[in-house]
Amino acid sequence: MSRTTAPAQADREDGSAAPSDGLSHGLKQRHLSMIALGGVIGAGLFVGSGAGIAAAGPSIVIAYAISGVLVMLVMRMLGEMSAANPASGSFSVHAERAFGPWAGFTAGWAFWFLLCVAVGLEGIGAANIMTGWFSGTPEWAWVALFMVVFCGTNLAAVKNFGEFEFWFAALKVGAIVLFLGIGVLAITGVLPGTDAPGTANLTGDGGFFPHGSEGLIVGLLASVFAYGGLETVTIAAAESEHPVQGVAKAVRTAMWRIALFYIGSMAVIVTLVPWDDGAVVEKGPYVATLDHLGIPAAGQIMNVVVLVALLSAMNANIYGASRMARSLIGRGQGPQALGRTFGGVPRPAVLLSSVVGFGAVLLSYWSPDKAFIWLLNTIGAIILVVWFFIAASQLVLRRRTEREEPEKLVVRMWAFPVLTWVALAGMAAIFFLMAREEGTRVQLYATGALTLVLAVTGFALQRSRAKTAPAERS
Hints:
The chain is mainly alpha-helical.
């Protein structure tokens, strides 16, 4: 058997997975479940949430609850479509089936760009921890080291990636559960050496909404970004032993776990630590909370966990980006040479997806103080654009599947179509709020410009292929 596979076998143009897609199928159910958690628990939660708390104050809990409900609806819709038609292109394939190649092109490459930039964010966050331990070492050198390591990890067999991600994600989950347990003990005054804080930190220093609606909106956007990456599980499902059953179970379990971890963590942090404590941003909210409680060495131990979380998320995001790129290229929406597989791994796509991450190395070298914020603003509201495509595609494909293949609906969206429309309205409301606030307008414009460029390019490619198809048939 050849060691390489042509990209055309990735996903069929009708959206279904090809019988022999060239990818390895070495992921097990336990890998899928942890990949779902590993891709999302990273810089957005451990690092970015500090800026969200500083902006929103205690109301960050409401921000995470609102976006948590939204992401649960989106993941239920995505789970329905992915269980019915597993494909390595996930929602990009579903958008193409629903609206045409231009939609798959736009959603897919937007998400690819989001994951690649997220890789850079994770790398910079991890490098900040390392420079704290090894003072005098350059941040860019650590980012470069991490990029080389995880680019290499993703060039290896997918089974190795799955095993690596399983144990690293398990450590992250265990640490968050322990953190929540310690936090609850401290809040109730049961933890030795601590007094119950009551509601002092929730109502003092400006109240529950210290910066009003503007702060809540900034916190909402930070929380939306933090939830981004959960979609990777539906991409990974195409390389599992039992794609349909795997994605259905992984989506069900990941949704409530993520909501519990995120909302619970924010509630513990703002109850125990004053929201305007500079350590929340400087050290990160988790480390700041444990240091505030005076638990010996807990802050440093949590730093190790945060480092592992960031590196794990880098690994998962390179994986997700490479598979999305391969699926797009396999459907004729990218350079064909980059879509080939070697030993069941799309190595050219892995290298392509790592290029943007290496761009973060340059940013860290030129402007280490501003690199993280610049990258965060660059991706802006891309995840909301992706979610919009998911919801719109589900509206179309649910009715089509009920009509043509109802037996494929092993996962069903709740209260369809009402909750789908509710999710779309929620996304539109967030876009509107972004447009109103000066601090988030730049992100909205950047995201809008990128989406427009991708949509126009997708339309052009679609028309070009439509014109050449009759000539090829004749």
